[in-house]
């Protein structure tokens, strides 16, 4: 993750930008902007963006483009929905890129791997659970937050690995032996962090979590 400048071949940059622009345009067009007209909600959204800027700044790595940090994509998705999550994470990525911790050339692929793909997986799990499973507090927290957080990190790692492999930046054996397996550990960390954060929020500040309705999940149980 966090592809720096001059890492990916030039012919790989435009497809990444193109796919991200399409996803970002969809998010802009369909986002529930009315929610952010509430001062308390926009403060929470902006506060979450700032918190993730700090979280993304804490990272470790072994080679250019081969680094690790927590995402927070699942938390953003469950709190604000997929559109505002995509937009918020794009702002976070732009901030860390401006700070020199990522590259503008690879911004499109960075955004796809750390923003669009994890958000899509997180929201897909939420929709599946919401439609197929009972409205249960523990299902919401453990499936949507814990499992969603873990799978979002794994998808981010697999996406970054495939981009680096297919583009020929690193050898396949090296990526699958010395890079991708570490995302299993990162997935556990992401799951625990997301699960704990969402559990606290739905208990004490359920109005911060847009996909959670305490009437459905708690009061009618």
Question: Can you give a write-up of this model?
Answer:
By secondary structure, this protein is mainly α. It has one domain: Arp2/3 complex 21 kDa subunit ARPC3 (Orthogonal Bundle). 71% of the residues lie in helices and 3% in strands. It contains 8 helices and 2 strands. A two-stranded antiparallel ribbon has the order 1-2. α1 packs across α4 and α5 packs antiparallel against α7. The protein is globular. The termini are far apart. The mean pLDDT is 92.
End-to-end distance, in Å? 42 Å
- Biggest beta sheet attributes: 2 strands, antiparallel
C-alpha Rg (nearest Å):
17 Å
Model regions low in confidence, pLDDT < 50 over at least 5 residues:
none
What is the number of E strands? Answer: 2
| Helix-strand makeup class | mainly alpha
Q: Percent of residues in beta strands?
A: under 5%
Provide the CATH top-level class.
Answer: Mainly Alpha
Shape: globular
Architecture, according to CATH? Answer: Orthogonal Bundle
> Topology as H/E string?
HHEEHHHHHH
| Number of structurally distinct domains | 1
């Amino acid at each position: 993750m966090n592809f720096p400048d001059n890492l990916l071949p030039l012919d790989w940059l435009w497809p990444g930008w193109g796919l991200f622009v399409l996803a970002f345009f969809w998010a802009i067009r369909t986002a529930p902007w009315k929610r952010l007209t509430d001062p308390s909600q926009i403060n929470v959204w902006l506060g979450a963006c700032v918190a993730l800027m700090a979280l993304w700044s804490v990272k470790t790595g072994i080679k250019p483009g081969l680094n690790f940090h927590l995402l927070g994509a699942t938390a953003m998705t469950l709190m604000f929905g997929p559109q505002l999550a995509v937009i918020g994470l794009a702002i976070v990525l732009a901030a860390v890129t401006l700070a020199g911790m990522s590259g503008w050339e690879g911004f499109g692929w960075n955004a796809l791997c750390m923003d669009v793909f994890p958000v899509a997986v997180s929201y897909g799990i939420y929709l599946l659970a919401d439609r197929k499973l009972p409205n249960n507090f523990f299902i919401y927290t453990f499936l949507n937050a814990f499992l969603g957080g873990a799978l979002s990190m794994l998808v981010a790692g697999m996406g970054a690995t495939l981009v680096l492999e297919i583009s020929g930046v690193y050898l396949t054996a090296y990526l699958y032996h010395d890079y991708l397996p570490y995302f299993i550990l990162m997935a556990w960390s992401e799951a625990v962090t997301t699960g704990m954060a969402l559990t606290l929020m739905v208990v004490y500040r359920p109005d911060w979590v847009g996909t959670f309705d305490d009437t459905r999940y708690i009061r009618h149980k």
